[in-house]
Amino acid sequence: MDNKNSMRKRKFDYYMNALHYCLYKGEVWSNYKVERQVYGLIGFLSTILGLRKYWVKRVEKLHNDKELKEYLYGKEWEQSISLAHHWFGFFYSGYSLFLSFVLLGIPDGLYGGVNEIIALVIIALPIGLCYIPAYRAVFSKDRYLKYFKQFEKKDASWYKKWKWITIAFCVGSILFAIGGMYAMWGVSLFFRE
User: What is the tally of structural domains in the chain?
Assistant: First the structure.
């Protein structure tokens, strides 16, 4: 039995870290696209203003700046990884938000309304409790860095598969959150009768 739990935990860790890695790669991709668009726009404007030579030198300097690249695309606490941390927590919380809304519908139906502080506690408690396993799987002792090294060695088919799994995870989270609002309304009506 203990071996089964250990295997489930490893699968959960792998799954959460793969999702986090794909969110990170998505952030790197979007940062790169924005960077290219901004460089193109400024390059166009510099040509119109007659500053093309200055801009070409400036772009070469920016492309060779290792600190800037580390800031934009690094894996410790830089821009892309920080946004990936944020999006991971946001989308993971959508699933527990369903439970929060259902629980919020019970006192709303029984008492005809809920105090804002009570509502905040009812919403935050399930989200916080459900986030603990994901936090331990990904962020505890920077486990994601170990998994990132492992994921970087994967082939293109693995990336394609997990990209779609990540998209499904994110869309599912949004649908669960919206469904939770409707479920809260249904539970509230159920308890009012």
Answer: 1
